[in-house]
């Protein structure tokens, strides 16, 4: 619906544009000209005697302004770009009106103003997630993980709108992930993130057909890759080999630091070589914001003395992981070795040596003991497997 309405500001030349229910809007051309002879366009909104004017930061020559069409003429330079911007403003106004109508919520002037200035994407679910991620304070690793889920959603359905998220949505997405070869733990991890985003959308009063209580997410106690003592012995031997490539030595050095401290790579990167002579060093973990203490040990001293570039020259995580895969193959370790395997290896070695569960939870900075218990269960499985050799003691 379009309306023509006059306004009291005689310094503004009015035009017609889309008018949402309860809110009357117009794009107006201010009569004031800047030193270039151009006038700025404003979005003018009124409701129940209240008025709000929003400068659009779009400047046009008055002679090129077509009042009836609400657009600039072809005589204007970059007229296509300017008209496209105006199309987008019309679309934004239409989207706000449609969204509030679907929510059965009256559109007040204050609501309209907030949506125009700070508008939350309310139609496209993927756009909403991207918007929310920008407002959240996340560790780099967590952000990368969430962005990979967004990329997967885009590949599956780039135009996924909220109204498509119904009771069939969870099963459809799980089938897609399974077809891609994702593990169950990965799929449920994806679904947990998506559910969290939908809960946020619900708080933003965005409607979608799915009842969030019906979106069930299973928790999987995933096994974690770690290295055994004999495999670690091979890596230490290779690290101290005089013929090892300098790039391999540096990457392996950071991995071994994780193996003897339990630190994440983001925490390892906070270590300063000139500070590691001290008895202990305190760090703030980037992922959790929690304080952690690194104690100087014999293993740390040996690692540092064997490589003068360690904790001086840094490599990207992808580069380290690439080298670690080559190193594992060289050392005849048939496992997918990455930086995070170092943290798992430390945890298993700590428990194997009789370390306390709650103390390990503190070292790893886990928020829940259930997360730490995964290592206990894996150690139990490891020890149960070793009982198979008892029979050979009597034969």
UniProtKB/TrEMBL annotation:
Residue ranges of every copy of the Tyr recombinase domain listed in the record: 222-388
Keywords: DNA recombination, DNA-binding
Molecular functions per Gene Ontology: DNA binding
InterPro entries assigned: Arm-DNA-bind_5 (IPR035386), DNA_brk_join_enz (IPR011010), Integrase-like_cat_sf (IPR013762), Integrase_catalytic (IPR002104), Integrase_recombinase_N (IPR010998), SAM-like_dom (IPR025269), Tyrosine_recombinase_XerCD (IPR050090)
Taxonomic superkingdom: Bacteria
Biological processes per GO annotation: DNA integration; DNA recombination
Pfam family, one: Phage_int_SAM_5
Recorded family membership: Belongs to the 'phage' integrase family.
PANTHER family: INTEGRASE_RECOMBINASE PROTEIN MJ0367-RELATED, PHAGE INTEGRASE-RELATED
Protein name as annotated: Tyr recombinase domain-containing protein
The species this protein was found in: Nonlabens dokdonensis
């Amino acid at each position: 619906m379009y309306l023509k309405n006059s306004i009291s500001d005689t310094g503004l030349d009015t035009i017609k544009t889309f008018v949402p229910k309860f809110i009357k809007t117009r794009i107006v051309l201010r009569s004031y000209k800047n030193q270039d002879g151009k006038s700025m366009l404003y979005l003018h909104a009124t409701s129940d005697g209240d008025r709000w004017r929003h400068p659009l930061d779009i400047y046009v020559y008055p002679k090129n302004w077509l009042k009836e069409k609400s657009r600039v003429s072809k005589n204007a330079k970059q007229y296509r770009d300017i008209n496209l911007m105006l199309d987008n403003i019309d679309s934004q106004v239409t989207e706000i009106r449609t969204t509030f109508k679907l929510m059965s919520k009256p559109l007040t002037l204050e609501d309209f103003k907030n949506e125009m200035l700070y508008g939350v994407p309310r139609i496209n679910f993927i756009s909403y997630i991207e918007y929310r991620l920008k407002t959240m304070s996340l560790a780099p690793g967590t952000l990368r993980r969430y962005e990979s889920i967004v990329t997967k959603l885009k590949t599956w359905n780039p135009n996924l709108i909220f109204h498509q998220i119904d009771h069939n949505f969870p099963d459809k997405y799980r089938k897609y992930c399974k077809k891609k070869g994702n593990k169950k733990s990965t799929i449920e991890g994806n679904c947990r993130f998506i559910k969290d985003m939908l809960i946020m959308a619900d708080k933003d009063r965005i409607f979608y057909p799915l009842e969030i209580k019906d979106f069930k997410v299973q928790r999987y106690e995933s096994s974690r890759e770690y290295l055994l003592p004999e495999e670690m012995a091979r890596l230490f031997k290779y690290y101290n080999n005089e013929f090892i490539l300098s790039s391999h030595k540096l990457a392996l050095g950071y991995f071994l630091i994780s193996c003897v401290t339990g630190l994440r790579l983001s925490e390892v990167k906070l270590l300063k070589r000139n500070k590691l002579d001290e008895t202990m060093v305190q760090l703030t973990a980037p992922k959790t914001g929690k304080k952690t203490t690194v104690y100087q040990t014999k293993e740390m001293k040996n690692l540092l003395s064997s490589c003068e570039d360690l904790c001086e020259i840094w490599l990207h995580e992808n580069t380290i992981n690439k080298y670690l895969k080559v190193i594992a193959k060289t050392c005849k370790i048939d496992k997918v070795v990455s930086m995070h395997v170092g943290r798992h290896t430390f945890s298993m070695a700590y428990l194997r040596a009789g370390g306390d569960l709650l103390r390990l939870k503190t070292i790893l900075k886990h928020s829940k003991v259930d997360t730490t218990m995964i290592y206990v269960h894996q150690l139990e499985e490891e020890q149960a497997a070793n009982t198979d050799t008892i029979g050979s003691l009597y034969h």
